[in-house]
Specification:
This protein folds into 2 domains: 6-152, Sandwich (Jelly Rolls); 161-218, no CATH class. It has no helices and 16 strands. The chain has strands at residues 6-7, 36-38, 42-43, 51-72, 83-91, 98-104, 117-137, 143-152, 161-164, 172-176, 179-182, 185-186, 191-196, 199-202, 207-208, 213-218. A hairpin with a 7-residue loop joins strand 3 and strand 4. The protein is globular, with a radius of gyration of 18 Å. The model is unreliable at 1-24 (pLDDT under 50).
Length: 225
């Protein structure tokens, strides 16, 4: 095993403003030194998953979880180690797991231009522990990935006016009761929904890259607030 299958901390990417000019903060290098991999199966912390390849994160405290983003194993010639079919479990403790979310991650492109891809949105599920079980990879002898980011969930229905000028705008739903203004950048791997009950302004400088999933709707907040 190249790196331990148990990590005691995870750097959370909060849904906050990014420094202006960082247009490609999602890009990941193609070094094997910035990846996690497991070459020997072991007993899973969730008994329902049996023995296999897994990684468990202890976030250090309980958080309302939001959007996942995955960067698969990106080392040239070894992208087949990357996870393909995974199960995401989460819990406030390690004796009671929730989730059981099945998800498929695409194989990485072995490039420093690699920006990963959007994963599931947990919509505020509370957890301290996140468990990723890799059921299948792309044919490699070991199982791994480069990085995972979890956003902190924010209620999309509690703002009258919202300005989204981030570079990049992270994946998610952004809602305003009155007016939503945007002049930010949506990267090719992102999935973004702008929603306002009255007005959406895409100001000069706004850009949605080819490949992004982007929608703008004049609708009430989906939570009914």
């Amino acid at each position: 095993m190249k790196k331990t299958t148990y990590l005691t901390s995870l750097i959370l990417m909060f849904m906050a403003l990014h420094s202006f000019g960082q247009c490609f903060v999602d890009r990941h290098d193609s070094s094997d030194h910035s990846s996690w991999e497991s070459c020997s199966p072991s007993s899973n912390p969730n008994p329902a998953r049996g023995t296999g390849h897994w990684i468990m994160y202890d976030l250090g405290s309980t958080y309302a979880l939001g959007q996942f983003h995955f960067w698969n194993y990106n080392y040239p010639g070894e992208t087949n180690k990357g996870m393909q079919n995974i199960i995401i479990d989460y819990g406030i403790n390690t004796s009671s797991w929730q989730g059981g979310i099945n998800h498929t991650v695409s194989e990485a492109i072995a490039s420093s231009f690699y920006e990963g891809e959007v994963g599931p949105q947990l919509n505020g599920a509370e957890a301290r522990y996140v468990l990723i079980t890799i059921e299948e990879n792309y044919g490699g002898d070991c199982f791994g990935f480069s990085e995972m980011r979890i956003g902190i969930y924010e209620d999309p229905c509690d703002q009258l006016t919202l300005n989204k000028h981030e570079i990049p705008v992270l994946s998610g739903l952004y809602h305003a009761e009155q007016v939503l203004n945007a002049e930010g950048l949506i990267n090719a791997t992102s999935d973004v929904l702008f929603q306002s009950e009255n007005e959406i302004n895409l100001d000069p400088g706004f850009e949605s890259k080819q490949g992004a999933v982007f929608e703008a709707r004049i609708e009430d907040c989906p939570n009914g607030n």
